[in-house]
Write a structure and sequence with these properties.
This protein is an alpha+beta fold. It is built from nine helices and twelve strands. It folds into three domains: 98 residues, Orthogonal Bundle (Arc Repressor Mutant, subunit A); 82 residues, SH3 type barrels (Roll), CATH 2.30.30; 81 residues, Alpha-Beta Plaits (2-Layer Sandwich).
């Protein structure tokens, strides 16, 4: 068995136990199914599974234990910092791509520009070691290119795009830079001090997307969707604060606690007549005014 196959088995074991506690036979059945579609040798003995459990703890900071009353293995500790589900989604996608290479046109991707993810490794290295980074940046507004030197803070995903959060050397504000607009990245050996009193998670806790620091205070927002649209919103929440207030034959109503930034207002408008703002009244009036402008533009 190759090292690659061993690593694959580790990830499949994690995948199975992330979904539910499982017996040895459950794990074996899942591994056997994966063998049928990947040509990898994945099934193993109980002894090998015990060795895998030790390796998984060492490599992934995931502790797996066995409940002797049910003979089920389960994840007792997961040190992957709260992103387990997304990491497993990425693992699933990578495997689908690898397997899909022999499936012709059965695995179909949207046609779009690259997301700039080739910069991630270098930028994460710079963030971890607090190293200054220089790059050329193409602005959204006019496509002009300007050189930037920044103190990188974090990388954030928003609406299927990746952004570098960073502070320019001559500015005290942490800005966002879309990775797909960054080029000619150079990582300096010059270190910088950590930015004081800046917590990325707190900064974006009440943000809908990537826009923050624009002055809007977080507030209670209630939206009413049609039943059909509401099912979609329920399955794919607009924000982590989403709570369902009402579900009947005429509407599905959700409550949010966030700042009503420009990108959130555009999201509301994108749902057309499938959504109504219930509160606050100020946001309701803004959306009505924008809808009236949209309608008036068709009169010219």
């Amino acid at each position: 068995m190759s090292r690659r196959e061993g690593n694959q088995r580790h990830r499949y074991i994690i995948h199975q136990l992330t979904k539910r506690p499982s017996t040895f036979n459950d794990i074996q059945n899942f591994l056997q199914f994966q063998e049928t579609i990947s040509d990898d040798r994945l099934t193993c003995s109980v002894r090998t599974l015990q060795r895998d459990i030790l390796n998984i703890l060492s490599d992934y900071d995931i502790e797996i234990k066995c409940d002797r009353s049910t003979n089920e293995y389960y994840i007792a500790h997961d040190g992957r910092e709260g992103q387990s589900e997304r990491l497993m989604e990425t693992f699933d996608l990578l495997n689908a791509i690898r397997i899909g290479n022999s499936f012709g046109n059965h695995l179909i991707f949207e046609n779009r520009t690259a997301l700039g993810t080739e910069h991630m490794n270098g930028l994460l290295h710079a963030i971890k070691n607090r190293l200054e980074v220089s790059f050329n940046y193409k602005k959204f507004i006019d496509d002009s290119v300007t050189p930037r030197t920044v103190k990188p803070v974090a990388i954030k995903e928003s609406r299927n795009r990746w952004y570098l959060l960073a502070q320019e050397l001559d500015d005290e504000v942490v800005k966002n830079f879309a990775l797909d607009r960054i080029s000619d990245v150079e990582i300096s050996s010059k270190r910088f001090r950590a930015i004081e009193d800046y917590d990325v998670n707190k900064e974006f806790e009440y943000s809908f997307g990537i826009i923050n620091g624009t002055g809007e205070e977080p507030q209670k927002i209630v939206l009413s969707f049609t039943p059909q649209e509401g099912r979609y919103i329920h399955s794919l929440p607009l924000h982590h604060s989403q709570k369902e207030l009402l579900n009947n034959k005429t509407e599905r109503r959700f409550e949010y606690h966030l700042a009503p930034t420009y990108d959130f207002k555009m999201e509301i408008l994108s749902h057309g007549n499938q959504v109504k703002v219930i509160e606050p009244e100020s946001l309701r009036k803004e959306i009505i005014a924008q809808l009236q402008k949209n309608l008036a533009s068709y009169d010219h």
